[in-house]
Amino acid sequence: MVHSGINQSVQNDVHIWRLPASAAGCHIPDQVLFHWIRTQHVPFVVYVYVPERFRTIPGYLTAQLLAFTWYGLVSYMWGVSYKVYLCAIRCVETEMQLLCQSLEEIGMMSGSGNESVLVYKSDTEKVQGNEDVKLRQFFSSIIQHHQHILRLVSLLSKHLRLVIVTFINIYGLQTCLYMIFLLKMKETGIRMKYAMIYCVILVIMYSCTKSGQDIKNKGEKIRMSFYECAWVNKPQWMKRSLLVMMSKSVEPIELKPFGLYVLDLNCMANILKATYTYFNIANEFIK
Questions:
Q1: Which member of 97, 102, 125, 243 has the lowest number of beta carbons within 10 Å of its beta carbon?
Q2: d(C-alpha 90, C-alpha 96), whole Å
Q3: For residue 93, which of 193, 198, 214, 199 has the smallest C-alpha distance?
Q4: What secondary structure letter does DSSP report for 259?
Q5: What 3-state class would DSSP assign to 30?
Q6: Is the CB of residue 265 less than 8 Å from the CB of residue 210?
Q7: Quick one: pLDDT at residue 217?
Q8: Is the pLDDT of residue 124 over 50?
């Protein structure tokens, strides 16, 4: 019954293809039509040529060892790059948090006349002079710390921009492909495998963009700390310096690789939107 159904389908296809050929004045033999119609239903097969002398168990084991070594090396290099990226982000976040705490210490230091807990000196050195001198030294260190943070973010964005752009675009492409696989694959096991990989890719993308969002949030916190610090009863020189720092902090502190986009959670949302758009386009071509 199955063979008869297939033969009937092929005969119908031959009849359909014979009509346009007859109208064009061409005669196509039935053997050619049958061969062409049958090959349309055959899946695409990729042949890999292996020389006869390599078709041995040691050759197979050597090939597998080389493949696993390559994948292990790539995974190790990716893990090192990702850890370096996270460590650099955490160091910058810690510096930004310390700057916010230093700005909160200004009021307590000038009001009590004692040395601040976060004075930027070594334990063996003593801050000399009256309160105004102490305030000058402390606020000068805050200014240097703020400039240091700006340089750190600039260097981080400069040296990690290629890694960030490459990973983000590769992950976006992978999410699009995995969505297509989930839709087109029929086997439940394969669909579950791609679903798990899809979730892992989403977690990695969220981790990368969340770190950029934390830098952006810390930069906003620094800007608000400038406005909220105890500057009312302070000398004019400090107010002028603080005004310069406020004008500098208007520009947001953020990671912007190659100036293409800002690395934050909105970036991940835009990537997922673009992935869904590409998925719909690819799905139309697949149909």
A1: 125
A2: 10
A3: 214
A4: G
A5: helix
A6: yes
A7: 93
A8: no
Residue whose pair of structure tokens reads 């590769």 in the numeric block: 170
What's CA 182's distance to the chain center, in Å? Answer: 22
Residue 120 predicted with pLDDT over 60: no
d(CA 34, CA 11) in angstroms, rounded, equals 8
Task: Give residue-wise pLDDT tens across range 53-97.
Answer: 777 888 778 888 888 898 888 888 878 888 888 888 899 999 999
What's the rounded Cα separation, in Å, for the pair 225 and 232? 14
- Letter for the amino acid at 48? V
CA–CA separation, 165 vs 175, rounded Å? Answer: 15
pTM, entire model: 0.67
Query: Which 3 state secondary structure label does DSSP give 102?
Result: helix
Residues 6+ apart with CB under 8 A from 206: 268
Query: Within a 10 A sphere around the Cβ of 193, how many other Cβ atoms?
Result: 15
Residue type, 46: V
Answer positive or negative: Cα dihedral of 99, 102, 104, 107.
negative
Cβ pair 243, 227 in contact under 8 A = no
Between CA 91 and CA 151, with CA 269 as vertex, the angle to 5 degrees is: 25
- Per-residue pLDDT at 114: 41
Has residue 170 got a pLDDT over 70? yes
Among 137, 111, 132, smallest CA distance to 236 is for 132
DSSP for 105-130, written as a single string: HHHHHHHH-SPPTT-SS-TT----S-
State the CB neighbour count (10 A cutoff) for residue 33: 19
Q: What is the DSSP letter of 16?
A: H
Cα–Cα distance between 286 and 107 in angstroms, integer? 66
The answer to whether 169 and 102 have CB atoms below 8 angstroms apart is no
Structure tokens at 263: 């690395």
